């Protein structure tokens, strides 16, 4: 007989501990922060050497393989705190009625004539190739990308009176070309801030990836069943029936039997597993009274450092599995035999 209700030691024997290549590749397609941090020094070097003219950055880009035009633009968007959405909402035709931006660089006046930006293109991260998927592949320096790069570098030193004040405050990096110390201080301060505000979001996105991975594998194995993400089970609720209780994955068999599935894969320690542990008993009690089941998919080196939390979860779980394909198969067999 298959042992579905495992203890921590039995679960650990089946664990994979670290992300599979499949998930690493998928995570890379949506998370850009590691790429930005890994190329930060090269980005600073380009801005440092590109001081012979206000467009010398174009030549510097051609001389390196590590930074390509869309990645260069993404760095500028992060340090200026201006994404695709704010760009989309600006009326650049009104700002630059002559289609030209006049700006001061090294105490001299320069002009840049926009090529595509004033044609009101539909701007989003995908079109600019600066979303996760776009940054996986280098793209050429298109006229639109060049327009946006020049705007983010020099709008802050533009002499055009109609330029938005928000752009003037944020788009100043062009004035620092060739000033290594000032560049490093400014950019690294920005990235400290970016790292702090994205740490939770990155962890959350990885949690969502793990959840979607399990859901997809179960859907493939149970094609006639009903499965949903972040769903609820009839009769299982908070606050005396006033609020439905949400679970990472909800499964309903053709016989209308239900199972809640909670997923946690953490390769570093965080509070997610402690939260799930704190909820484990009350959730199990409510689900049992309603006549249904609850299962957990738990893995990751970080989670196994929280042995007390894992022990609590195992105690109140009807089926506990790790994250490998074989383990998801065990979970699907549990669902087939129990619902």
UniProtKB/TrEMBL annotation:
InterPro entries attached to this UniProt entry: RE_BanI/HgiCI_C (IPR058973), RE_BanI/HgiCI_N (IPR058974)
Domain BanI/HgiCI C-terminal: 181-338
Every BanI/HgiCI N-terminal domain range: 18-178
Protein name, per record: Restriction endonuclease
């Amino acid at each position: 007989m298959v042992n579905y209700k495992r203890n921590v030691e039995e679960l650990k024997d089946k664990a994979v501990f670290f992300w599979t290549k499949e998930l690493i590749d998928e995570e890379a397609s949506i998370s850009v922060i590691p790429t930005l941090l890994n190329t930060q020094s090269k980005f600073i070097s380009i801005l440092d050497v590109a001081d012979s003219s206000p467009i010398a950055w174009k030549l510097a880009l051609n001389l390196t393989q590590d930074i390509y035009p869309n990645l260069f633009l993404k760095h500028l968007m992060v340090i200026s705190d201006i994404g695709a959405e704010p760009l989309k909402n600006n009326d650049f035709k009104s700002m630059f009625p002559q289609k030209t931006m006049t700006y001061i660089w090294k105490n001299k006046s320069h002009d840049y004539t926009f090529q595509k930006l004033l044609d009101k293109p539909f701007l989003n991260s995908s079109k600019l190739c600066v979303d996760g998927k776009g940054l996986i592949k280098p793209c050429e320096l298109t006229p639109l990308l060049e327009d946006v790069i020049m705007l983010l570098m020099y709008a802050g030193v533009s002499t055009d009176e109609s330029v938005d004040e928000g752009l003037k405050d944020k788009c100043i990096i062009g004035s620092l070309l060739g000033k290594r110390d000032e560049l490093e201080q400014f950019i690294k301060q920005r990235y400290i801030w970016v790292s702090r505000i994205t740490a939770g979001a990155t962890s959350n996105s990885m949690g969502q990836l793990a959840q979607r991975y399990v859901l997809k594998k179960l859907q493939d194995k149970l094609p006639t069943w009903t499965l949903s993400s972040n769903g609820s089970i009839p009769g299982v609720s908070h606050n005396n029936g006033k609020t439905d209780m949400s679970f990472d994955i909800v499964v309903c068999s053709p016989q209308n039997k239900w199972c809640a599935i909670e997923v946690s894969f953490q390769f570093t320690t965080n509070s997610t597993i402690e939260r799930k542990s704190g909820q484990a008993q009350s959730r199990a009690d409510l689900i049992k009274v309603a006549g249904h089941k609850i299962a957990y998919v738990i893995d990751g080196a970080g989670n196994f450092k929280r042995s007390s939390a894992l022990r609590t979860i195992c105690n109140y779980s009807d089926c506990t599995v790790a994250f490998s394909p074989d383990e998801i198969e065990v979970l699907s067999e549990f669902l087939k035999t129990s619902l």
